[in-house]
Amino acid sequence: MRELFSAGMLIAALMGPVHAQGVQPWWEAFGHPGLTAAIEQGLSSHPTMGSALARLGGAEAGVALARSGRRPELGVRAGYRSGREQTMETGGVEDDIDPLFASARLSWELDIFRKTGAAIDAASARVGQSEADFAGVRLLLSLEIARSYVALAHLNEQARWNREEAEDAWAIYERARRRTEAGLEPDTARARALATLEQAEHTLARTVTERDKERARLTSLVGGTPLGEEPTSLAGFTLPPQPDLDLEGRLVGRPDVVQAHYAWLEAQGEAVAAARTRLPSLSLVVSAAGDGSDAGDPESWAAWAGPVVSLPVWNPGYQAQSRWARAREEAAEETLRAVSLRAVEEIDRAWVERSRSEEMVGQMQARYQALSSIAEAEARKRAAGLIQEDALRRSRRNAARAAREELEWRAAALRAHLDLIASLGGDS
Hints:
By secondary structure, the chain is α+β, with helices and mostly antiparallel strands.
């Protein structure tokens, strides 16, 4: 397992952000223009995308900040002062302080032991984390929009079925009421029909309520602007084929795995930088200072240039920081392994569920077609007077029940494919 993770992490480090940008958007594989439009609207309008982009910009600024440690520094001081002083140099007699003073210092610390380089590596790894964070937010938002869009289409189709059932229940109730009033059936027949009607109307009301809630959720996900045209059924969706999987492909596209990998690289860079703070540093310095009563003719001045070596002999804070950084690196490495292991588990589980749901859709479609054929044959028999109305209604109910079961499994298959996309990090 460690060899799997090492190979996968190396590829994730080299290809992770590019992989997320170079492939075709996964939602286009569903072949539904409305779904594509909804996701693109959400990705351009939802505030979470702007927030993730701002975090990425902050990480990129951090790299520039780290690189500034390799550039020369220039400082200038100048001022005016008034007063008197009494020193040994004046023979104990008070004298006026020279009012003008100025100094300048140019220094350039050479990164001989790559302490600054390690800090730059850590900052660059933070950019990789931010890129993975951006890809993760994009993937999460697009998946949530797709799930909500599919759910709304499913609920609209369910509402249509439930409305037809309520209309049938109303017709049955009216028939039972007339027959009861005519004395052809007992009152219990009308009571049963009324109970069936009330149940059908309750189911319809519940479905409509769930649909309205899902519509509001989808509106929020796409940025607060209602869709121009909402989905009415699942018929327009194409179930994409299952993607090919290879050893590295299980991990490359996962933003959380890529982010954990860059977090490990960041911790490595910080550990190296912390360990090298105890090494000597070499700077090239040019310094000049002077003071006097006249800016053009200073009474005293000094200038020098040369290398300066600094050696931290004893600093407990450096040692504690180094130990903390090493512990953080070890924790980041173990987190990377844990995230990778969870990713493999989620991919395997989603793959099995996706395969099972596709098989069930095929079975439900075959069952619905068979029961529809039976219902059509029963309708012809009823027209010829060969069977009673109740037999025809039973066959129609069986076909309708099969159609609803096929609808449920189609929705389940679409959801399973979305779960598989999530586990693969956006691969279609």
